[in-house]
Design goal:
Elements (H helix, E strand, L loop, with lengths): L1 E7 L17 H7 L3 E7 L2 E2 L1 H10 L19 H7 L3 E6 L17 E4 L18 H7 L11 H9 L10 H16 L5 E7 L10 H7 L15 E2 L4 H31 L6 E7 L4 E2 L4 E3 L6 H4 E7 L6 E8 L2 H10 L13 H4 L10 E5 L14 E4 L3 E5 L7 E4 L15 H17 L4 H10 L3
Helix pairs in contact: 1-8, 6-8, 7-8
C-alpha cells in the first residue's frame, strides 16, 4: 500500500459541489465520486503551523505548541513509517513550517520546499511597487490598509518571473510531486505528502480564472491580501474578494487534477490510498468578517476530507472526524507501530465500511502557549458534536451556540435558549484538555472563564 496525502491551505469545503458548490472544481468533484467523503471533518490545533504539527506528530498540539519550531525531542510519525519500511517524502510550498528552522519536515526520508510563497525571503532584485496595479493592492491589505506587508511585498517580487500558469506555486508543487512519482513509484511502500499553500492569500491567479467568477471588466481595489477583521469593504469589493478566492481555489483544483491524472496513468490507483484535505477555511464576508481567527465559524473549522482506498466503496459518512485522526489513519494503513504520541482515532475502519462512528466531539482551538499566534496569544476555538456548535471566545465565557442541522450558516444564536447544550459542550472541552497534555494553568484558566 502507498499513501498520497494532499493538503490545500485555506481550501473551503464549499468550493466542492457536495459541500455547497460555490466554486468551480471539476477535478476534485470527480475524484470525490471515487472516495469516502467525510461530511463532518474538523480542524484540531490551529492555525497553519500547529496544524502541521498535528499531522506530522499525531499529537494534539493545542496544549503543547504554538507557532514555533518543532522540538527535536517530539516523536514524528515518519520515524514509525521508516521502521515499517516506508519511504516518505514531503513536497511543499507552504513556507511557515519549513523556514526559520521550524523543521516540521523532520523524519521524512526526503523533502523538497518550493520557495517563494507569501513572505518567504527569496528574491532580491529591484521591483517597482508604485505601479497602478500595486496601488490597487494597497487599498485593502493586512494588517493595515495602504501598506505593503511582507506577505505581499515579498510575494510580488518572488512571483515576478512567472511566464505562464505552470510557474505558479501550486503548479510547481504538483509538477514536483509528479516528477517524484516517476522516479519512486516502484518503492514497495511510500508515503507522499503534497502540501500546497494555495488558495491561501495573496490571490494572484491568471485572469481567465477570475473571469469565470467576475466576468465584467474591473478597475477597483484588488483585495488580494485583505485585512483580517470586520469587513469594511463595499459590496462590489467584497464580491471581487470572493471572486479572487474562488479563482485561486479553481487553480488549485486544476493542478491537483493533474496529479490525480498522473496517479491514474501510472497505475497507482490500484495500490494507493489518496487523502485530500484542507487545513482550515476562511471567512469571505460571512458574519461581517474577513478573517480566519476572530471566531471559529463553520467556514473556518469544517473542512473537506476525501479518502480514496482501492478496496473501499465510495460513499458519504457522517462520522465525526478531526485532523488529529489523519496520522493514526496513515499508521494504521501501513501497519506501522503506533507510538504513544499518536492520539487520534484511525479512520480506516470507517473507510472500509466497518463502522460509521468515530468521536463524540471535535475540538478546535488556537495554540494556547508557546510562540506566536495570530490573535495575540489568546486564540478562539469551537466544540462540536456534529449537531451543536459552541464557539469559544479569546477571553471570557462562550456566548455563541448554533444548531447546525437547522442553521448551517450559524445565523441564529441559541446560547440563551439552549444553555444546557452549551454547558455540555464546554465540559467536553474541559475534559479534552488534560487528556491531551493541557497543563494545569491552562485547564484552570478555562474553568475560571465559565463556572459550570
Amino acid at each position: 500500500m502507498n499513501i498520497i496525502h494532499i493538503i490545500s491551505d485555506t481550501f473551503r469545503r464549499d468550493n466542492l459541489e457536495m459541500y455547497g458548490g460555490k466554486g468551480y472544481c471539476p477535478a476534485l468533484n470527480a475524484f470525490a465520486e471515487k472516495c469516502v467523503v467525510f461530511d463532518k471533518a474538523y480542524v484540531c490545533s490551529y492555525p497553519t503551523v500547529p496544524i502541521r504539527g498535528d499531522l506530522v506528530t499525531g499529537e494534539v498540539g493545542i496544549c503543547r505548541r504554538g507557532w514555533e519550531p518543532l522540538q527535536r525531542n517530539v516523536p514524528v510519525i515518519t520515524n514509525s513509517l521508516s521502521k515499517a519500511g516506508v519511504i516518505s517524502m514531503m513536497i511543499a510550498d507552504t513556507p511557515h513550517h519549513l523556514n526559520n528552522g521550524f523543521f516540521y519536515n523532520r523524519g521524512f526520508t526526503g523533502w523538497k520546499w518550493i520557495r517563494g510563497q507569501e513572505s518567504d525571503l527569496l528574491e532580491t532584485h529591484p521591483f517597482n511597487y508604485d505601479t497602478d496595479l500595486v496601488r490597487r493592492y494597497r487599498q485593502h491589505t493586512r494588517p493595515h490598509p495602504e501598506n505593503l506587508p511582507a506577505g505581499i511585498y515579498n510575494h510580488l517580487k518572488n512571483s515576478d518571473s512567472r511566464f505562464n500558469e505552470g510557474d505558479t506555486f501550486v503548479a510547481q508543487t504538483i509538477q514536483a510531486a509528479c516528477n517524484w512519482l516517476e522516479k519512486n513509484y516502484k518503492h514497495e511502500n511510500f508515503y507522499l505528502m503534497v502540501d500546497t499553500f494555495d488558495p491561501h492569500e495573496p490571490w494572484d491567479v491568471p485572469d481567465w480564472y477570475i473571469r469565470r467568477f467576475d466576468p465584467e471588466d474591473y478597475d477597483g481595489p484588488e483585495p488580494i491580501y485583505p485585512t483580517y477583521g470586520h469587513n469594511k469593504m463595499d459590496e462590489r469589493t467584497t464580491q471581487r474578494l470572493n471572486s479572487l478566492y474562488r479563482a485561486e481555489a479553481s487553480l488549485v483544483d486544476n493542478w491537483i487534477g493533474q496529479l490525480l491524472r498522473k496517479i491514474d496513468y501510472m497505475g497507482l490507483m490500484e495500490n494507493t490510498m489518496i487523502l485530500f484535505m484542507a487545513d482550515h477555511g476562511f471567512l469571505l464576508g460571512e458574519h461581517g468578517l474577513i478573517a480566519k481567527n476572530l471566531g471559529m465559524y463553520e467556514e473556518i473549522v469544517h473542512i473537506p476530507l476525501l479518502i480514496y482506498h482501492p478496496e473501499a466503496k465510495p460513499r458519504h459518512t457522517d462520522a465525526l472526524a478531526s485532523i488529529i485522526d489523519i496520522p493514526a489513519t496513515i499508521i494504521d494503513a501501513f501497519g506501522a507501530e503506533r507510538g504513544n504520541n499518536v492520539e487520534g482515532i484511525s479512520l480506516l475502519p470507517i473507510v472500509m465500511n466497518e463502522t460509521d462512528t468515530c468521536r463524540d466531539y471535535a475540538i478546535t482551538h488556537g495554540a494556547w502557549g508557546g510562540g506566536w499566534s495570530p490573535d495575540g496569544g489568546s486564540p478562539h476555538g469551537s466544540v462540536t458534536d456534529g449537531t451543536w456548535s459552541l464557539l469559544l471566545e479569546n477571553q471570557g465565557a462562550p456566548k455563541e451556540l448554533y444548531h447546525l442541522p437547522s442553521d448551517p450558516q450559524q445565523l441564529n444564536n441559541r446560547f440563551e435558549s439552549d444553555t444546557v447544550e452549551a454547558r455540555r459542550l464546554y465540559q467536553a472541552f474541559l475534559d479534552f484538555l488534560p487528556q491531551h497534555g493541557g497543563p494545569d494553568a491552562m485547564v484552570q484558566q478555562f474553568q475560571s472563564r465559565w463556572e459550570l
